[in-house]
Amino acid sequence: MRKGWVEETEEQEQEKQRAATPSSALPSFKPSFVLGGEAGLNMARLAKSSVMQSAMQASKVRREVSVAERNHMRAMQQHAYTHWVDYHLAKIQYFIEDMSKDMCDGVLLINLLQVLTGESIGICSDKPEMTIFEKMENVNKAMNWLRSKGMNMRGYGPEDILDGNVNVISAIIWSIISVSSVHPFDAQNTTETKAKQLLLQWCQQQVQGYPSVRIDNLDLSWQDGLGFCALLHKYRPDMIDYNAALNQGDDRIDYVMALLAENFGVTPILLPADLKKKDFKPDERSVFAFLTVLREVLTCALID
């Protein structure tokens, strides 16, 4: 307190001396604090402008990355869903190449549901050339059946499928994929979260004890391909050398996918190139779709 008081007193004394000095005797100058204030203000403006520009640039980069990642995700999903459907339809000698075109008459959608559940839904018309009303009747029948199983179809209409709306078709197929992963087919009691948790738990149980494999999720945990190798080795140790797979690097993904296609007829639901991309993590739903098929072929092979 004393020091502060002395400094205040000295400043007061200096002020008295300046007041007693004639104004003509004072040098003509602009106080430095004024210049400093203006310069500081300009510097603050420049700094603020620079920060805003950096923020805008960072935001633009994030948007570009977000758009690119979203496009990557959608491309993975469309590919995975198409081949997932194709895998199941092949059991009754039906095939699909393009969901936006091949699903629009309702025939493949009804057949898919019948294959997955074993229930008879019935197709209203399966002629090579159908009228719009016959197609509408098929689609309505499939959608009504899904509603009867508790699936939320709010916001989706038969015209979306008839028009080949790939976003709506993909959304419906994803719901079918997740619900059908739990038996019996019951959308009322099978949420997406529940389906993912059950599949993840199954994978974790199967790969337990395998070195260098840690399955925590349905995306990044599968990027190196070791999880797939461990699952295959668990059920078919004669088919793959797991120790050799540990040293294969990225090539192991191509290797295990080729083994699954050759020995089990698993269509390329996941593309190795999509799993290897370092800029984006694998799409969770696409990996889920593949794992449901992998679980089916491996457990069936064990029974056989």
Helix run count: 13
Second-tier CATH architecture of the domain at 191-303: Orthogonal Bundle
N→C terminal distance: 92 Å
What is CATH's topology name of the domain at 191-303? Actin-binding Protein, T-fimbrin, domain 1
In N-to-C order, the SSE pattern is: HHHHHHHHHHHHH
In helices, the fraction of residues equals: 55-70%
What radius of gyration results from the CA coordinates? 33 Å
Work out the number of β strands.
Answer: 0
**CATH 4th-level superfamily of the domain at 191-303:** Calponin-like domain
CATH class of the domain at 191-303: Mainly Alpha
**Largest β sheet strand count, sense and barrel closure:** none
**Helix/strand class:** mainly alpha
Q: Overall mean pLDDT score? A: 85
Which ranges are low-confidence, i.e. pLDDT below 50, for 5 or more consecutive residues? 1-10, 21-35
Proportion of β residues? under 5%
Domain Calponin-homology (CH): 75-181, 193-299
InterPro entries: CH_dom, CH_dom_sf
Region (Disordered): 1-25
Organism: Acanthamoeba castellanii (strain ATCC 30010 / Neff)
Question: What's the topology here?
Answer:
Elements: H1 2-20, H2 32-89, H3 99-102, H4 107-117, H5 132-148, H6 158-162, H7 166-180, H8 192-207, H9 226-235, H10 242-246, H11 251-264, H12 272-276, H13 284-303
Helix pairs in contact: 2-7, 2-13, 4-5, 9-11
Characterization of the model:
It comes from Acanthamoeba castellanii (strain ATCC 30010 / Neff). This is Calponin domain containing protein. It holds the Pfam family CH. Residues 1-25 are annotated as: Disordered. The chain has 13 helices and no strands. It has a domain at 191-303: Actin-binding Protein, T-fimbrin, domain 1 (Orthogonal Bundle), CATH 1.10.418.10. Residues 1-10 and 21-35 have low confidence and may be disordered. Helix content is 65%, strand content 0%.
